[in-house]
Amino acid sequence: MKNYYSFKDIQGDLCRGEITCQKLVQGYLDNISKHSKLNAFVEVYKEESIKRAKEIDSKIIQKKSGKLAGLVIGIKDNICYKNHECSAASKILKGFKSPYSATVIKRVLAEDAIILGRLNCDEFAMGSSNENSIYGPTRNPINIDFVPGGSSGASASAVKANLCQIALGSDTGGSIRQPSAFCGTIGLKPTYGLVSRHGLIAYASSFDQIGPIAKSIYDIKLIMNIISGQDEFDSTCSAKDFASQKTLTRKKRKFAVLKEAIEFKGINPGIKNEFTKMVDSLRLEGHQISYISLPLLEYLVPCYYILTTAEASSNLSRYDGVKYGYQHNDGLISTTRSKGFGKEVKRRILLGTYVLSEGYYEDFYIKAQKIRRLVQKQTNKILSKHDYILLPTTPNLPFKIGDKNISPVQRYYEDVFTVHANLSGHPALSFPLGEVEGGFRASAQIIGNFFSEKDILNTTENVI
Q1: 76 a catalytic residue
Q2: Catalytic residue among 65, 98, 151, 196
Q3: Residue ranges of the chain with pLDDT lower than 70?
């Protein structure tokens, strides 16, 4: 099957009659079978997707099809789809079928997108390697011995391997952008509140955002037009939408480059080199480059994990085996939770309970909230004088699956450059740069003002 770079190319072939939705879906199904070792899809809706493709082909002929007719999508296994299983890659949700669809699912289906199946992820979106899953690890299509990143690792892996055209993931601390960097795709973490979280299984509610992973900027723009905007089921969702966003008219941009990021002690030399080359190229083209400091960088990861684990310990208390999902034979809630949750999830629940406990709440949780406010304040100050902030997406290239030499704390620090945008709530886009080693590429990250996604995408497409 043809590896389409952009959905625009698919639309062209559909209009010319060179392909049908049914043939397109069958091509992706064949690719999934061919690349089963990647372990990207945990469930494929084969018969359902073929039936839907036939219906949309008929709509196209009648000129009644929606804006996403022919777009084949994979969804992360923490986004609810009515009458379909949704487990967040956890034993504790084994057999659970969602009684409703997430708002993003309703919106893409209303525009005739085809949902191909659900994608593997780290359990409850907790991880940076996609190894913490009851379905086993997902592999990186560039080299199957390596991780694809996490927690939306399978979403990035599926797009890169051409198992679907676009994937929907969720980003709590970089879970869209980090796997996009590891797999060489484009990933957007929208402004907090731009996309409804209704139907997303929560990890840390004040951080989580649904966003797309794709191969082209065109595809990201197209789907953001559909999934963004106000939702009565999500009180944190903004009335603003992607379509109404304004963009900069002047040709030259003002970029702020974080000094602490490129001087980070553990950064891969190849990533630093490719990032520096991009910055130098922008300067030569006449764009303004300023090297600025964010002194709080060293506190971002501890702050992020204190706050997210605290929220997780609260959000995950609902999984007790009484109402739905897995229940241990003895019927005890404590046994059900001990057997139902994986090691990483239990670690984060315990850490979150600890930082919220009496005697530690003010020392940890309150201080972390103060740092979060300072991060947002400093970020807003930088963006009041510059159009965007530039920094690498990750400090390192993908690591091997099952690498025992990397401690949990070291893995947490793989998020050092991505948690910034989640703490402050700003939009951030990860995009690939040049190759560094073994087919793996460096990636850069661009952070903009609140609700500036359209401008970020246009700048990445036309300027960078």
Answers
A1: yes
A2: 151
A3: none
